[in-house]
Records
---
Amino acid sequence: LKKHTMGIYVINKEDGQNGHYDDIGIFVEGEIVMDNIGSPAQACALMLGVIYALNLAYPKELRHYYEFIQKVLMGLDGEKLSPKVLGLKNKIATG
């Protein structure tokens, strides 16, 4: 957690079953801000809320990922897309 500014962590159960976790949470600057989240998908959506609520910038290495979720999947501020995200959106639409 100390190596990254923010992110989602997943702790797998010891039995190693896919889809079963001991904990899923969100951390910011090495501190856990949310834990016991139900699924990785919920954690991704909640991460957008944490970023918005704390007025943070998207992590540089994940900015296109979060931009895609925010603007394409959630339809928030979707008219202004970066070229990379617009290209991905077009590829998905033409499928």
---
Amino acid sequence: MRVERLGQDKIKIFLTFDDLKDRGINKEDFWKDVPKVHDLFNEIMEQAYEELGFELTGPIAVEIFALPAQGMVVIVSRGKSNLLFGEELEDELYALEVTLEESDFIVFAFNDFENLVTASKLVNKYLVNGGKLYFYKEHYVLVLEQSDVKDGEVDNLIAQLSEFGEVSPITAAVLEEYGKLIIPKDATKEIVVHFS
């Protein structure tokens, strides 16, 4: 489990499927209201407090993104207001709003172009198509669809990409709207051709 601060009132937690398996949780449990998911959330928030000083007060929103063969990304945002239905909340209480999304995209962000070039060289053998490349918030973002990956090679692809980049919860729609499209198709193959 990896915890990262995205802003003063927002954190990101990445859970691998091994993290979930160790706790006896599968991704379908997130769609149900089961005690072990509550225990995991409490563990996440405890780790966020210990590592980042992030405390839960007031209303919070939790977004959970299921990423194919990678795990889950949990985004926790604190609300600005401590008012709920016109009444002040007690400091130790919080209102919880959960959004669950499952993605058919594999999205990796690279903060260094050389890392992207190295990763592209390694992963092309697992790909039918090389995906799209965007530039967004100072990162190169590679977007692959499940259909871009050869059958049975998703785990190998994820393992290789994880060595050089980070799983990203950014959606393809956000990238299309706010990112700069650099290579519209077969991105990893184009990178290898031009930068090897």
